[in-house]
Specification:
By secondary structure, the chain is of the alpha+beta class. Among the domains are: 42 residues, no CATH class; 152 residues, Alpha-Beta Plaits (2-Layer Sandwich). It has an 8-stranded mixed β-sheet. Strands 6-7-8 form a 3-stranded antiparallel β-sheet, covered by helices on one side. Helix 1 runs antiparallel to helix 2. The longest helix is centred in the last third of the chain and has 29 residues. It is globular.
Length: 292
Amino acid sequence: MATKEDIQAKIEEIEAEMSSADFWSDKNAAQAKIKELQSLKDELEGVGKYDKGDAVMTIYSGAGGDDAEDFTRMLLEMYQKYFEKKNFSSRTLSENENDHGGYRNITIEISGKNTYGTLKNESGVHRLVRISPFGSKGIRQTSFSMVEVIPKFEKEGEVNIPPDDIRTEYSKSSGPGGQNVNKRETAVRVVHIPTNLAVHVESERSQSDNRSKAMEMLEAKLFKRLEEERKAKESGMYVSKSTANEWGSQIRSYVLHPYKMVKDHRTNVETAQADKVLNGDLDEFIEAEKVL
């Protein structure tokens, strides 16, 4: 991916071409150059144009068994309460729920003003420490869930992916649509073979609609990865291709025993008001994240 310096140099090159007397002698070529210039300026601004748009959030349970799956539910409810405060709306795209109300994973689409820009830095591993409600021994349990936030792309083609790099799998949908829909293989999972990134969608009424939305989300995942790699390259930092959903990789800890505290390990923002945070009071954390 090009650096900011490369992009700026290309912008200056095109702007110099535009100042020449014969720039408009070929109208089609001139318009193509103007379009390229705008695209480069958008790229130089990073995800500014996506920050203003909608977002897709997936929460995955990690190490911790039943506790981790319950923690995924807690995070989902925390974010839903935060969305209400911000007048964001959300709908479920896919879910994998266990038999006691927890989630192995769940994906939701969030709509509202600046949702991606607001939520994008919530991506990462979250850690919970509490007395487990799933055992009789009163043992303190540590569990992990990972949050992934990507921009919502409005159409396919934002990121070019060769068709041979995609594997598509079909299954029966457990989502909305009625009995007849559930009997057909409408759910779609697309996999980007080179990176093993995958998306599962079952919220739409037809297989083709589910595939289209899955491709939009896969492109957004690749876009976010490329952005992270570009920023890391510019800052001289190393970015792992995968994040372990376990101890040592967490961005935020929620401690409910033996004391109460929520601490973000990137910004060092912390509060003893853990119950308020889990009830959607996230403004202090999210505002601090904007400088990341």
